[in-house]
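Appendix C: a fully annotated inverse folding record. The material below is reproduced so that readers can follow the format used throughout the book. The structure is listed first as tokens, followed by the designed sequence.
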């Protein structure tokens, strides 16, 4: 292995979530049609729903509701733009350790890592809509991990085998404490970073039960040992 610049660091950014793009398109449309809706509503005074009295006894201008919708759409438009233009720097690696940044923050020295895993977490959007959220996680090297992996490999799992917190039962417990959201399309970039700094470790795709697959690094993404390489 070639010498690695002690100051070099590889950063893998997350891909903007699909909802950000949808929000951008929908809210852009609403912002542009707001003046039309306001003109169509007219300038009369109307009675609207009062959230305090739970009755339609609040007086306002007819164009006020379209304006409120337009302002809300503009705010969501700006939020969506930020998510798209400034994606999360989810995974960082240097010669000493790997760092995760997202809802949780963690850092682990390479000698303490068993493997890096790609997996899906079952979550609920708006509290009711179940979806799979892509995750990248670090499995710590320990006797507990070895024992769990031996037991897990000895049985057949199904996709429905989930813990109460949405974590697949075929993954070591507590993996969610060392995982962040990261698009699965960024997995080859993560594998390239791991290969650069810890070539003895593997990045494993464990999204599906009984089908662990090693992720191949995207060699084209890392050229030399540049400082603060960003894999966008």
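Designed amino acids, in order:
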């Amino acid at each position: 292995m070639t010498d690695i610049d002690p100051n070099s660091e590889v950063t893998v950014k997350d891909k903007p979530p699909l909802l950000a793009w949808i929000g951008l398109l929908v809210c852009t449309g609403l912002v542009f049609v707001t003046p039309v809706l306001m003109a169509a509503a007219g300038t009369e005074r109307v009675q609207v729903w009062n959230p305090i009295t739970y009755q339609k006894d609040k007086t306002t201008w007819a164009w006020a509701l379209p304006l409120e919708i337009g302002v809300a759409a503009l705010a969501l438009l700006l939020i969506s733009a930020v998510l798209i233009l400034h994606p999360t720097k989810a995974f960082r690696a240097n010669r000493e350790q790997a760092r995760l940044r997202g809802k949780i923050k963690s850092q682990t020295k390479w000698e303490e890592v068993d493997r890096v895993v790609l997996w899906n977490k079952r979550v609920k959007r708006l509290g009711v809509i179940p979806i799979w959220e892509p995750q990248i996680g670090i499995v710590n090297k320990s006797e507990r991990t070895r024992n769990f992996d031996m037991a897990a490999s000895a049985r057949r799992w199904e996709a429905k085998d989930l813990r109460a917190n949405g974590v697949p039962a075929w993954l070591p417990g507590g993996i969610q404490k060392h995982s962040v959201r990261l698009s699965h399309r960024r997995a080859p970039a993560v594998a390239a970073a791991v290969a650069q700094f810890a070539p003895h470790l593997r990045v494993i795709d464990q999204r599906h039960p009984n089908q662990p697959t090693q992720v191949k690094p995207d060699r084209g993404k890392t050229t030399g040992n540049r400082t603060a390489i960003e894999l966008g």
